[in-house]
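Changelog-linked ticket: L-tryptophanamide example.
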Amino acid sequence: MRVFSGIQATGEKHIGNYIGAMRNYAATQDEGDADFCIVDLHSITVDYDPQDLHDRTLDLAALLYAVGLEPDRCTLFLQSHVSGHAEAAWLLSAVTGFGQLGRMTQFKEKGEGKEFVSAGLFTYPVLMAGDILLYQTDIVPVGDDQRQHIELARDLAERFNSRYGELFKVPRGVFPEIGARIMDLQEPTNKMSTTGGTQQGTVLVLDPPDVIRRKFKTAVTDSGREVRYLPDEKPGVSNLIEIFSVATSMPIADVEAAYDGRGYGDLKGDVGEAVVELFRPVQEKYAELRPDEGELRRRLHVGAEKARETSAPTLEAMYRRMGFVRP
Ligand code: ATP
Ligand code: LTN
């Protein structure tokens, strides 16, 4: 089985990224051949700073190794190191409908109210589909916000297959049962996000312990006092329960039972503490790995070579099926 996922190179990673995606990369790397891609080409579709992109890319590589990706159990690489990704995006744009892209909610959300909306933001999902399809991927571990993009990738695979002959495997998204959509602690009806959320409501994996505790202590909860998992009625408390459940491996019903008759305050304090403990080993490993840029670059170089080798036959087949004269 082949596993593939991509993660943006900019933005500091938060507990939503960790629970919704990163920890599942680590968990799936032994389920088959796993490729994980830092999608730096995607990062230029919104306003960004080049020096920041450069530094954040290396930060993220160190963080992914720190959460448990092992160079000998999976392939981690930078999207821009494997030129086939940009090529696949162009080729797949031939089977992508303009109207289809216009319906993408992420495009609408990220473009809304902006003075400048890049063409790249619009075609972004085609690049993402290419990322996945080039690796003949079976499963894509992602958070809930990526459902529509995965659906598009499946659609493009099917359209290509029927137009040019069977080539791509049609991939399937896998979403965590708990924590597929972690909400902002200050605005629990909105997804936690470094690009769209509040700073105080976004807990970063690399936040110092005191900052983590404070963010949970000040989390917005709902009216009432009962610690019950009811996402529609009690989005704030339900979000905290989900985070606590993941951080402690305690089923949701047990969390509810443990806080029966106690107030929200206890829960907030305990979630903060559990998350500090959850991130402690990750932060320690990160501090060890990040300074050695030579080693990070070496690992990414090896990763890119492997990724090129895996994706090259599919890229070549795409060109041939589409009628290109090959050198
Ligand atoms: P952001 O919204 O912070 O800008 P993003 O979703 O645009 O993040 P990535 O950092 O590439 O971009 O996301 C990496 C992974 O994290 C994706 O699989 C995404 O589905 C998942 N993810 C992002 N936000 C959340 C969240 N709040 N809850 C659960 N999973 C999430
Ligand atoms: N669009 C995703 C990032 C992404 C991705 C991918 C995820 C780019 N290419 C391929 C899974 C598979 C996001 O915004 N989080």
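Closing comment: Example verified and attached. Residues 247 and 277 are 8 Å apart (CA to CA). The chain has two domains: 2-179+292-321, 209-287.
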